[in-house]
Every structure is written in C-alpha cells, then in structure tokens.
Design brief:
Rossmann fold; four-stranded parallel beta sheet; elongated
Length: 295
Amino acid sequence: MTAVATLGIAVMRGLLVLQKEKPDVVIGTGGYTSAAVMLAQRLRRGPAVIHEQNAVPGRTNLFLSRFATAVCVTYEESVDCFHKANIEVTGLPIRAEISIPRDKAAARAKLGLKPDLFTVSVFGGSQGARGINEMTVEAARLLADKGIQILHQTGGRNYQEVWDHASKAGAYYKITPYLDEPADAYWASDLIVCRSGASTLAELCAVGLPAILIPYPYAYADHQTKNARALEKRGAAILLAESSASGGELANQIAALKRDPERLRKMAAASSALAQPNAAENVIRVAKALMRKSD
C-alpha cells in the first residue's frame, strides 16, 4: 500500500472520530501521526492549529501549514519558514512544576550531592547519548581536583559502560541511569550539559540555567544545532559540535565558566529572558480566537 493511500485511509478514520467528538479546534504538534487528524479537521472546515517546537520546522508541519488556520512557533527563527499570515511566537509549553523554584541545597541533598561545590548536571535524554557520555567521563577525570561535582545521567543502556570508567573520574563524579525528576537536577545545578531538543531548552530557560549544548548530529535538518544557535546567539549557551569536541574541550569550557561567575550570571539572565512561562496559555489563546471566528 502506498503512503498516499495509507494517509487517505487515516484521514477517513480521522473524520469519523472528529464527527463523533465534534471538537471546536484541533491542535497538532508535528510528526506523521498528527497529519491525518489535522487534514480531517480541515475537510470538515473546522479550525486547526499547528505548533512547531524547533527552530527548523519538521516536514509534517511544513506540509500542514498550507492547510492550518494558524501556526504557533517556539522560536522567532521559525517565522520565515512558514508562508502564513496567522503565525505567532508562543513559546513551547512545558510542565508547570519545572519552573517552580526549589531550594538549591535541598535539591542537592536529595540527589546525594555536596551542598557547597560548583555543580554540573549532564544528560543526553532518557536513553542517554554515547558521545556525550564519553566526553563527560574524560572531562570528569580532568576536573577531579577542581572543586567541581558532576551529576551524569547516562541512560540505562550505557550505564554499565560509564560505570566501568567512573572510578577514574574522582570522588565528585556521580552517575545515574535515569533522573526520575529532572527538575531536581535543574535546581541543583550551576551549569547544564545536554542535547538541544526543543523541550529540554524550554525547560532550561524556564529555570534560567546556563548551558553547554551538544546537539544530536543526526537530527532531521540538523534542527538541534539550529535550536542551540538560537540560545548561543543570545548569550544563554555555548555550542559544542559532537563531531569535533572532546572531553578535554568540555572540561576546559566547564572550568572556564566556574572561574567566571559574572559570565555565568549573564548566561543565566539570557536564558531566563528566553523563557515563555505562559506558552501553554498563548497557544490556548490562539485556539480560542479561532473558535470565536468560526462561531
């Protein structure tokens, strides 16, 4: 069965669901799974909103933007990618609890960290990231006597490999396969090292954290690099390319930021300035405006 035929069947099924549920508006967030329902909503002449998370729009959202009633985006950089009059920078909705302030000392104690050391949290997503893991182990070894503690979320499948080398990285290097509550690590940290997926960056900005970003190099249209550059050019982050970076360079960047609290402060302020705490409300406002027009 061809992709077009499969999509056609999915649209018809979407129509049946929508005719039963009769939604006032449909919001799509990209990915092929949203295409059929969004198209079905437009076939029934109902308002449809797409939300683009990344600085570089995905293929599905670029396609759907031709039919959508309105487009919401996370970054200003995305606006020119869509040929649409009704487009708004809303930010990316995140879990509300992420931005609720937590006591730094209490967050560190909960994670088994020292209360008075410069703290770096490293993570590459729930599955981990082997490139980041390898760089972090080397960086931790080089920083072992610099008064820096590192909390490293390795991902489950890479945990044993990292554990085998952890003893060489000093007493202030703590590894865990998963972080049950990432907000604890955010509020415990002075600096974050991570990938640059849209949700992660929105959370960092909500907390106001400086970051060293190592984009996933195989993302569609290299969108993680574009996301990272959006923060870098505003002074909120440092971008390292995985293909050329090393554990030594990562260690140098971390040590340099520890020695320069004023730069860290400015990066944190730039990160906070990019936060969109009302992102969910912004998207809802756009949707409600369309609902009123369709009445």
